[in-house]
Prior knowledge:
By secondary structure, the chain is of the alpha/beta class.
Amino acid sequence: MALKIAIIGGGSAYAPGLINAFIHHAEDFAGTELALMDIAGPELDIVAMLAQRMVAAAGVDLTVSKHTEQQSAIQSADYVLTTFRQGGFEARAQDEAIPLKHGIIGQETIGPGGFFFAMRTLPVIKGIVKDIEQYAPNAVLVNYTNPTQIVAEAVTHFSRVPCIAICDQTKDDQHKILSAMGISPSHVKLESIGLNHATWSTHFTIDGEDGIEVMLRHYDQVLADPNITHRVKRQFQLARDYGRLPNSYMQYYYYREQTVAEAKASPQSRAQVIMAELASYYQHFQEQIEADEPKLSHVRGGSIFGDMAVEVMRGLVTKNASIHTLNVPNRGALPDFAPDRVVEVPARLEPKGATPLVQPHLPSEVVGLLHMLAEYQWTAANAIWNGDKRDLRHALASNPLVMSLPLAQNLLDDIMPLQAEFFSEHFR
Length: 428
């Protein structure tokens, strides 16, 4: 098998974890070139050198190349994996700080922060799909770049490139829920549906027992534990109130005032915390380059082996028809949403995409907010991709956490001068 996989954002602190996952599944990717591309040259040099050392130490049939030019990385690729952060964590810090000035949560996918991130991300994605169409017309785009939902809406509506968007937040939520209860079950089954970062469980069992019932038994213990985050505690509260497990990001809507107050009171934003830690990741990578046998113990993204992106790509390459929770066009799978709206749903992989599996209706008490989010994210994708400045304001005003034209305009007026270098020419 002689495949080429372009990784756009190949110098990020996430990339070594991805390389590790490719090595772990190397027999399914034998003969594959991993083309790492990044505009951050020093970081790319470190990650590429580490990746080459890891491959050599493992003795697997993979090759690693590095590219600072996007077109050379994409040229003749079979798959293009996007995992970049336009503007870096410095821009994310602005995404988090500016909304808080207006009394709204600042977060990288939620509210105005997610909108600002999309404004930086979609122009890059637009260039990537253009290069795929020209230099790798048979490639599949696997998007791991936030905000996932808005990116997927844009690519599926405005390009011919097959696109699968992925997010492993549900797996992370599952891990934290079990950890909060202090249990290590042998088998957990969790299926959730809705939108990216806005899902509710449809099936949740822990060793065959209803997962919500297990959570309720541990409810008082979890809420009394000072070492458990408010975010996890709110999942328990919402699970008790609605009888199903929510995505942890739902706290920003159902506990809006509390999350804003906590963000304002925090001495550092999430971006500032990450920026303070970032050098330590690359120091670890440098140390492992010089080690006799490189071993990763300090990577961003949590998991080291079996990263979801690689599992999905493995399914595409081997044509194993495996089922994963993906962000894909609805095509009638979720009866509560339009057929062309992107949804997060269990889907069966195909060679060039995925077929969403038919799901039940969600109850009215939770689906109303999801409808608002779905239409907002489509409107945002449309406005940003096509560059209509009036539509930009209308799209941001339709966000459930904004809901105001003057506020939307004020937010845009604040962010535009700070991040103009990242926006499309017609947004300036």
